Amino acid sequence: MIRKQLFFKISFILLVTQIFTACDIDVDNNVPGVPPEGRFATVVANQHIDTPSVEVAIAISDNGSPVNLVGGDVVQASTTEDLILLLDNGIYNGSYAASLENDLNLDQIDFLMVHAPVEARQGRWFPADIFNIDHGPGELVGASATITLPPTPLNISISGTNFSSISDTFDITWTPESAGDTMRVRSAISCTDGDRTSTYGTSATLADTSDDGTENISIDQFIYDINDENLNVDFILDESRAALQELLIKLSNGEPVDEFFNYFPVINPINSPCEIQLFLFRERQGAFDSPTTNGNIFGSRSADITITYTPN
Fold it and tell me: 132-180 pLDDT, tens per residue?
């Protein structure tokens, strides 16, 4: 059974999932999809249903390489009621993440690069207010971005809860909105053969990503035969993996959890009972302060529902 866990140590929900076969799996700790030239930023925020905080994250790269913030420069995320510095390293190199309190469910999240040399040294073995040689703010200080979170997906239902064949399909429905947002379905899957358990994540390919309130999905987007070279599964290996990893951590109420999506099946899912935790995301594009900034920025709200697979 999947341990209830949730969102972000780098809450990347980027839509750039890549198709991998069982022999093509690549586990790189650099943010994928970054161009080899120029500066590129990824900024995301997600709030899961019935949670009082927004998981926020950012990563910056320069000429394809991660940019680690030094010298007291740090990203601040804020609403009109609360703010937090992104001091924790995310799951990817050069990424930073935090949980921003948002018990009022405010929609606007502002990001600002600030110079805070004392606060940025919190957690060091020495007092943060000594050995502080401040070289002043870096060139990124003052850069900003804004994300507006869309409404939470509500009234999620599934036409069936237990499936026995990868050719089975189901309808997932929710209350639609009219804002023109994008819908995504991702999964956290746990399969067991009685002695061993394998965990992995997938991103469903939807026929229509519009917020129309319904989508038909096949089980073979989640369960597969490890011996089949022609898979219909998109494994989560990118920013979406990081987002779901942290979403799962959050839902565990702080319990230590393994790197859920770092383990790929050692048993064959098609022959094993599996629990499939489905996450429905409603995503909305954000905006950088400068129109010349290259990158990806969006916010989302999410909800989840669980189905099972039991082979005949």
Answer: 566 778 788 999 999 999 999 999 999 999 999 999 999 999 999 977 8
| Spatial distance between the Cα atoms of 111 and 107, rounded to a whole number of angstroms | 13
- Burial class, 235, CB count within 10 angstroms (exposed 0-12 / middle 13-18 / buried 19+): buried
The single-letter code of the amino acid at 141 is: V
Contacts of 39 (CB under 8 A, 6+ apart): 60, 61, 62, 63, 67, 293, 294
Q: Which of 89, 124, 148 is the last residue in one of the domains? A: 148
Q: Are residues 229 and 252 in the same domain?
A: yes
Percent of the chain having pLDDT more than 90?
47
What are the φ/ψ torsions at residue 262 (nearest 5 degrees)? -90, -10
Kind and range of the H or E run holding 89: strand 88-89
Q: Where are the alpha helices (DSSP H) in the chain?
A: 239-251
Rounded to the nearest integer, the mean pLDDT of the chain is 81
* End-to-end CA gap in the chain: 19
Sign, CA dihedral 24-30-31-37, equals: negative
pLDDT, tens digit, 9 for 90 and up, residues 47-90: 999 999 999 989 998 888 888 887 789 999 999 999 999 998 87
Of 59, 56, 70, nearest in space to 31 by CA: 59
- Tens digits of residue pLDDT in 101-114: 999 999 999 999 99
Residue 242 pLDDT greater than 80, yes or no: no
Nearest CA to 203 out of 2, 36, 6, 13 is that of 13
Same domain, 303 and 163: yes
Q: Which domain holds residue 253?
A: 157-309
Output the six-digit token pair for 73. Answer: 């420069």
Q: What are phi and psi of 130, to 5 degrees?
A: -120, 170
